[in-house]
Amino acid sequence: xxxxxxxxxRRSIVVGTDGSxxxxxxxxxxxxxxxxxxVKVHVVSSYSIGSGAVPMAGRARGLSEADFTEEVxxxxxxxxxxxxxxxxxxxxxxxxGHVRLAEPxxxxxxxxxxxxxxxxxxxxxxxxxxxxxxxxxxxxVSHRAQxxxxxxxxx
Length: 155
Hints:
The chain has helices at residues 3-9, 21-37, 56-60, 65-89, 104-114, 129-134, 137-144, and strands at residues 13-16, 41-47, 95-101, 119-123, 148-152. Helices cover 51% and strands 18% of the residues. Helix 2 (21-37) crosses helix 4 (65-89) and helix 5 packs parallel to helix 7.
């Protein structure tokens, strides 16, 4: 294989994070593999609009309940991605962050497709009991991905 073909075959890795300690284990595994393979890691965090009471600060800024909640959730997702990218720097891995208004599985699958990823890495939380049957994020990703999926033991 020529060097040009080898470079052309290198494809990225996508990892999901919600900022939890469990998700950090998946991010660390992505860092290890990204470093070993010499590929970029795309860090994905998603958020929803949700609902909740608007505190005084939100009302003072004229935000509706939906707008305030979306802003808070988006900010949290951005912080999760930033933190994960800092973790990846320890591995010497190039990374790119993606924050999406979407269901977590849909966001991971969409970014993996857009980036022609060779692998999605996700923690196994939610893979047991009724949630496995009802469609946990790892379950949905593993059944719908068009690339390899590594489900990291985060227990």
